[in-house]
Amino acid sequence: MISPVRWDGSRLMLLDQTRLPVEEVEKPCSSWQEVADAIRALVVRGAPAIGVAAAFGVALAARQSRAGDWEGFLADLEEAIKGLGATRPTAVNLFWALERMRRMALANWHLAHGELGQRLLDEAQAVLDEDVAANRAMGAFGAPLVPAGARILTHCNAGALATAGYGTAGGVIRAAHERGKVALVWVNETRPVMQGSRLTAWEMVREGIPHRLISDVAAAFVMKRGEVDLVVTGADRIAVNGDTANKIGTYGVAVLARHHGIPFYVAAPFSTIDPAIATGASIVIEERDAAEVRGVGERQTAPATSPVFNPAFDVTPAGLISAIITERGVFRFPYDFS
Ligand code: MRU
Questions:
Q1: Quick one: pLDDT at residue 252?
Q2: Predicted confidence band at 297 (pLDDT cuts at 50, 70, 90)?
């Protein structure tokens, strides 16, 4: 199994996603600051994987703390939680995982630091293990939605790399492939950071899943030719009414799918649902560096002075989503995750 995030006994090891598909190297993190830098730089990315990495970041902060009392220890943890929470604003799994770690610390304040540190490490490992289990459950719930001989289109990377392993949308594709149902996966390259071509295509090659890479602008044409049976994507944050934030371009794919009468599915764990947000209008959308749009990788493809708008995510209205596949089952419109 592809393991993008793992604990090696003393350090957090992250499969460096900025180096894929060319090199497979792990980046070791020994401090919460290194984990925060890795999240910011997309060494680890994808909503669930960010949450898992952040949970280990808090466990690292506990190991780093030299505080002599509980108040000092808690202050060190809070500093780490704040720092990790400031890395990326859209994926709610990050804040969900940090809150879970905070609650674990507060519930065990009476323990000696060493023991509490171990509890936090165990909790981070539980976040990781539960994520893999949730993904497998999503795969099992999602596979029946995939018809035999399916041609599936996906956007961005919501595979093993974006999670603790197996994947959300990628998990549904894997589960359907394991049942012999997948004829082809259309992989949108996913401008501007190319998570589709760099990461999803890499996973497809590794797993031997038949696929074809297309530029994002080819998706409409492929649908028009009748060569897509369903779309499945991941999510970064789902509002109570089912509005879903995901990688920029997802909304356009959903509109195209509706126009062509193609089911559009979202696969995500419950940790991606934000019960505090009624609709997608309240979701904070991360804006990233202009260089991502002014170039492809290292190569400049636009004037250095051209003004840029670079939202990393968009919001697909719930009405365009045929079903949301979770580890607790398949939900259909109208959604109510209150
Ligand atoms: O900017 P990224 O690469 O972190 O964006 C990732 C996505 O949009 C994924 O589709 C989403 O996090 C779901 S991952 C299971």
A1: 98
A2: confident
The DSSP code for 245 is E
27 Cβ contact partners less than 8 Å away, ≥ 6 residues apart: 13, 14, 15, 16, 38, 43
What b/e string do you get for 192-216 counting C-beta neighbours within 10 Å, with b at 16 or more?
bbbbbbbbbbbbbeebebebeebeb
Closest CA to 94 of 151, 149, 45: 45
List, chain by chain if needed, residues with CB within 6 Å of any ligand 1 atom: 45-48, 91, 156, 158, 162-163, 168, 195, 234-236, 246-247, 312
| Burial 226-255, CB ≥16 within 10 A → b, else e | eebbbbbbbbbbbbbbbbbbbbbbbbbbbe
Query: Which among 95, 154, 195, 327 is the best mutation to test ligand 1's pocket, defined by most ligand atoms within 8 Å of the CB?
Result: 195
Find the helix or strand (DSSP H, E) in which 150 lies.
strand 150-154
Residue with tokens 């609650």: 103
Ligand 1 pocket test, pick from 18, 154, 157 with the greatest ligand atom count within 8 Å of Cβ, gives: 157
Q: Average pLDDT of 304-326? A: 98
| Contact residues for 137 (Cβ-Cβ < 8 A; gap 6+) | 327, 328
Task: Clarify whether 229 is annotated catalytic.
Answer: no
Model confidence pLDDT, tens digit, residues 142-171: 999 999 999 999 999 999 999 999 999 999
Residues with Cβ within 8 Å of 261's Cβ and at least 6 positions away in sequence, in order, are none
Asked if 80 and 32 count as a contact pair (C-beta separation under 8 A), the reply is yes
Tell me if 233 sits within 8 A of 250, measured CB to CB: yes
195: Cβ contacts below 8 Å, ≥ 6 apart:
45, 156, 157, 247
pLDDT category, 1, cuts 50, 70, 90? Answer: confident
Buried b (16+ CB within 10 A) or exposed e, 305-333: eeeeebebbbbbbbebbbbbbbbeebbee
The residues, any chain, with a CB within 8 Å of residue 226's CB and separated by 6 or more, are none
pLDDT (0 to 100) of residue 167:
98
In whole angstroms, what is the distance from residue 114 CA to residue 155 CA? 43
